[in-house]
Amino acid sequence: MTHTVQQTAAEAFRSRPLTPLQRVQRVLHRHPAISPLVVLIGAVIVFALINDRFLQPANLSLILQQVSIIGALAVGQTLIVLTAGIDLSVGAIMIFVAMVMGTLAGEAGVPGVLAFLVGMVVGALAGLLNGVLVSVWKLPPFIVTLGTLGIFTALALLMSGGRAIRGDQLGGFLTWTSTTFAVGPFQLTVGVVLVLVLYAVGAYALSQTAWGRHVYAVGDDPAAARLAGIRTTRVLLSVYITAGVIFALSAWVLIGRVGAATTNSAVDANLDSITAVVIGGTSLFGGRGGLIGTLIGALIVGVFRNGLALARVDVLWQTLAIGVLIIAAVSLDQWIRRAGAQR
Amino acid sequence: MREQQRPVLSARGLVKTYGAVVAIDGVDLDLYAGEVLAVIGDNGAGKSTLIKCLTGAEVPDVGTIRVDGNEVRFRRPQDAQEVGIETVYQQLSLAPALDIASNVFLGRERRRPGILGSVFRMLDHAGMRKEAAEKVDSLGIRTLQDITQVVETLSGGQRQAVAVARATAFGSRVVVLDEPTAALGVRETSQVLDVIRELKARGLGVILISHNMPNVFEVADRIQIQRLGRRAGVITPESHTPAEAVAIMTGAVTVDDEEETGDEA
Hints:
By secondary structure, chain A is mainly alpha-helical. Chain A has helices at residues 8-14, 20-30, 34-50, 57-82, 90-107, 112-136, 141-160, 167-170, 190-208, 210-220, 222-227, 232-258, 269-279, 291-310, 315-341, and strands spanning 165-166, 180-183, 186-189, 260-261.
């Protein structure tokens, strides 16, 4: 934001040669996915050296399955964080939708496909609720989703009555996401493939469509986006609804992964999805980042947990390591953003 | 001659208040096709609020706006854009993290032809870049070279150039420029003045808000002077000198508002 009059001395200062560190900062500013990629590759190398089982295809396949739920939620979370929002209710919506699908199919005897479709609608409505509160009522996303976190958690518990609905009651369609198949030496599940498809479609929408440009513009500077002729309320609403649908799809992945519809699984998924987004280089201030970074961020979380477990490190130390990673990622983001402020 | 012509954009009795603050208090404005109307006034005279009301950025509390004689109600900037009114706002409406081309086309992105565009909604990145480069080049602002440069890496003047390029590229009826040369150097300023003359020659109406008296007197056909939220008068560069304009602006001198119109409610 320099509005200074061009002076020769100032020009000379501004065109001074960059230090190597500034060059790095500049490159990272342009490609925010590079730093998480470096962390991911470094972690893989270290864990491979510690334990030679780490790189075996069976273990890598396991990591993919372990991160599939967080990875799916993180797609929706990324969209919301790009608009300078945050969603604390992602896990609650997912579990609630899983219970809706499970109760309909397992207890009410509704066909699996129909239960799935109802679940998708419920997810979209949950997103709509968050979206209306954020974009129309202009409440802070943090508070809104803290409230809906409580609402959907309670609804899921009320609906389940503490019981889990077993996989064999759910029928083939809802547990289809657990179906495994071999790709070379790797064992993938339908759920893992679904998550990868979500990333591909999401990344395409963000980079190749007008809607994607508008999501970035609204996150960057909502007032400017409005003056530029973007319907900011509508963009925000569409983001929250899309995210709700993604959380419902995550519920499908969850049912397959757990093999049941239960309120006891994936309770950490909320914060882990934010962790994946942040480590992936998407800025919590909005307008910067993307899904490639988030995919890498989710993989980092999975690799750390899996690698540290293989190295027989206590689970508490894993949590501590992830915490350090978050702070490092946010610090790096701030440092990189300063590159944008200069020149 | 003006008497027979219908204004392309006209406002009657516009009022906008922000709580206890009265920003504009019953302002009229007429803009004819093919003319440059400058709006001048001291800080707090209500220039920017007036412009925001005319371009949909703010909804006036009271008053009517007509475009080619038809009453319009702008509820958002797009409504004004749809009838061909483009604006360069003082606080520029650019997305800092997007590149120049994306910003020029922000809000009216172009899609690829065929199935890629219609079904897959794919943007025509290459086409938009090419066209954005042409629009920026036609402004002659030499400091903008790389159309894929991210806007936040640009200087204030360069950002202003992007905003001016966008407004002039898409304005089909009226272009409103709020302090378009505030961050520009001498050379760039004269280029923007050239652009204003060209818009006028194309038959568009131009509203120019500026503090720069020499610029205003160089390019304007008529000058509307705002004072304390009201229209203090409308003068022409022929009828008054810059010093007299400043005197009216500050309230040292008053003029009869010859264009006072009686058709307001």
